Amino acid sequence: MNVLKFGGSSVANPQNIEKVVEIIANASINNQLIVVVSAFGKTTNKLIASAEQAAQNNVNYLENFKEVEQLHFEVIHELVPKNQQEEVKTHITSLFKQLKTLLEGCFLLNEITPKTLATISCFGELLSSYIIASIASKELDVVYKDSRELISTSNDFDKAQVDFQLTNANCKAYFSTNKHQVTLLPGFIARTKEGKSTTLGRGGSDYSAAIYAAAVSADELQIWTDVSGMYTANPHLVKQAFPIPHISYQEAMELSHFGAKVIYPPTIQPVLEKEIPIRIKNTFDPENVGTLISKITENGKPVKGISHIENITLLTLEGSGMVGVSGISKRLFETLSAHNINVVLITQASSEHSICVGIYDEDAEKAALKINEAFAIEIERHKIDPIIVEQGLAIIALVGDKMRNHQGLSGQMFSSLGKNNVNIRAIAQGASEKNISAVINSSDAKKALNTLHEQFFEEKVKQLNLFVTGVGNVGERFLAQIHQQKKYLKEQLKLNIRVVGISNSKQMVFDESGISLKSWKEQLQNGEASSLELFFQRIKTLNLRNSVFIDNTANQQVSEVYEHYLANNIGVVTCNKIACASELNNYKKLKHISHKFNAPFLFETNVGAGLPIIDTLKNLIASGDRVHKIQAVLSGSLNFVFNNFNKNISFHDVVQQAQEQGYTEPDPKIDLSGVDVARKILILARESGYELELSDIENNAFLPKKSLKTTNNEDFYASLTEFESHFQQIYKEAADKDCRLKYVAEFNNGKASVGLQHIPFDHPFYNLEGSDNIVLFFTDRYPVNPLQIKGAGAGAEVTASGIFADVIRIGNQ
Ligand code: ADP
Ligand code: ASP
Ligand code: MG
């Protein structure tokens, strides 16, 4: 004999019920079956809501009632065989009449007792089971039986305790003589010896089925639901979660106790004793094998699953008067138990200075009051502090029988949470080591689940969530490169890169599952209005792990928001030099925040576009080298300009060409005035460990004062034309000496300067082509022959690839 239980979503509408009947028919071919059904999806919630509204004298209580009534008659109308409709309608109408009378009673009395609430909430199952029995009887030999005649309980109405002796005897007597192919019963409900209806607790239909399975020593208990088994984590919160093929009773019990709602925790106990296997199956994918819960598990992964419970309050009792005083915890737990307050988690420091207990939010107020009463004398004498109450928390738990044989799991758990800035309020590990739990803020729960899932189940693929601002030349190329490399990154580098947000100065667009990189332009055009603040707030609210903000602008205001991102554990990758070249204190602050909040701050493209200059420098310093001198040509723009400028072309035209080809900043004066180069040498000096300000850098500008003073591009270009002879003179002086003009940045013994130099043909800078950059590092290890890095130092494509490299660096961390 097998026992099959169908949950609320499996019987939520006529189409689903047809699927259920088909599953029952297939399963009954060679087997006698006990079939337990829940109320039609959401019915129990609506009944409870309606009862509570009625008790609060809210006239709207009938709305929920009517919705429930309508759904049931719709199912009867569509699925019950014509010749049975009258009889079924009569029975169901009479149930609705009783239900309405009870609700009216609550409305008139303005109150509801636990007994009445249990009676009202039972109706969902009474209705669903009777209707489904009559539908299934069309093809099958089905008998309907009211569970209240079999399951006997205590009178704790909303979550009654089962009297197994009486219940088992009732079941044995009934099923031993019942020869019908299928017995159909309502889940969730039972009754006291006095005949009053009770419930087995929310989600309790699973338990009803387990009680029957144990009583008749069934071959298998099948829980049919809306997911294909018990998953490694709640599949609605963790997209990458997958069904666990085989799991032990203890593991399933721990997971369900810690929030894996797919099975009601008490369900396992009755079948475990008889070693009856449980299969979790998907009504909407019946071929899927689902999850097998049984006594033995194969030698699988040490961590089997991750679950979480919401709406947790942490109570902390502490005070100097607790140390070494026996009986404090006994009194605390007696107080909680005397008021029926369920304790979900306990931790106590070995100093005995404080005890922490996790309870459900709904009990918090009562618990605090009762504990403060129980310890009133100690509180008055300042031996113990009034109880500390923290709400809005969640518990997250790793579960696995084999965890105790593996060292370092809790280390991995807490370091991965820490890296993602998930603040841990309390930790509990059972002595059996089947479970490690942490209390965290509710707002971090989804991020924590995904982080741990990635750590323990997807070790090889790391997800990065990118938020890109600025989609001009560089930003557009960057998105195109990511699009092109996505597959390679996933397969070869085990990096799953999702662009979750894109913004420009006017609009922004978000998609948590990843914006399509084919159609991002249209999506952005139709996006919502954007601002720096709105973009940041949305990213913060999304609270995704491994989030990275990417600044592809050259904008001052954007550079000023990095600290908010970093302080929220969101990495920053930027090609914008303004932040790193700002005041020394600001640069140091950003580095400090990045370190403190474990949020990478990378800006490789600030110097030499995609060339690995800063990364190389960092590695030199980290490995103990010291930089004495830097000589560099760091302006792709100025290089381009002076490589192309001669007596046959005007300076104005060369600069314009450079700008058109994307070799200059949007404001070309920043390049030509030397400010851009000064910023770059400043950043290199700072990264080498020297504390310099931009004003410390000697800037030997070659632009006439008038050009420097212009405030817009038009005036700037006009001034270039006006001073053409000045530029020709500069060219001639170099050409007369067979030298080339290079804008050189130098750092030597703590001092830096930038300016045009005449470079002779035997100098390493002489042959720099196009927009190439070159850097020479003279260090302890490279005192005479410097370490040289040379290559294309400007342009959208290479800058984008430099940003890409920083993103990969974060992925590899
Ligand atoms: P039913 O109505 O069939 O009893 P439930 O809603 O009680 O279904 O349980 C199924 C739901 O449990 C799933 O839809 C899923 O949202 C939730 N769930 C939470 N944790 C897990 C998990 N680890 N594996 C599978 N489902 C889970
Ligand atoms: N209908 C009940 C509830 O919603 C029992 C169940 O579905 O398991 O809690
Ligand atoms: Mg359920």
From TrEMBL:
It catalyses: L-homoserine + NADP(+) = L-aspartate 4-semialdehyde + NADPH + H(+); L-aspartate + ATP = 4-phospho-L-aspartate + ADP; L-homoserine + NAD(+) = L-aspartate 4-semialdehyde + NADH + H(+). Pfam families: AA_kinase, ACT_9, Homoserine_dh, NAD_binding_3. Residues 317-391, 398-476 form the ACT domain. Its EC number is 1.1.1.3, 2.7.2.4. Keywords: Amino-acid biosynthesis, ATP-binding, Kinase, Lysine biosynthesis, Metal-binding, Methionine biosynthesis, Multifunctional enzyme, NAD, NADP, Nucleotide-binding, Oxidoreductase, Sodium, Threonine biosynthesis, Transferase. GO terms for biological process: homoserine biosynthetic process; lysine biosynthetic process via diaminopimelate; methionine biosynthetic process; threonine biosynthetic process. GO terms for molecular function: aspartate kinase activity; ATP binding; homoserine dehydrogenase activity; metal ion binding; NADP binding. Transmembrane segments: none annotated. Pathway: Amino-acid biosynthesis; L-threonine biosynthesis; L-threonine from L-aspartate: step 1/5; Amino-acid biosynthesis; L-lysine biosynthesis via DAP pathway; (S)-tetrahydrodipicolinate from L-aspartate: step 1/4; Amino-acid biosynthesis; L-methionine biosynthesis via de novo pathway; L-homoserine from L-aspartate: step 3/3; Amino-acid biosynthesis; L-methionine biosynthesis via de novo pathway; L-homoserine from L-aspartate: step 1/3. Its cofactor is a metal cation. Coiled coil: none annotated. It comes from the Bacteria. PANTHER family: HOMOSERINE DEHYDROGENASE, PTHR43070. In the C-terminal section; belongs to the homoserine dehydrogenase family. Bifunctional aspartate kinase and homoserine dehydrogenase that catalyzes the first and the third steps toward the synthesis of lysine, methionine and threonine from aspartate. Homotetramer. This is Bifunctional aspartate kinase/homoserine dehydrogenase I. The lineage of its organism: Bacteria, Pseudomonadati, Bacteroidota, Flavobacteriia, Flavobacteriales.
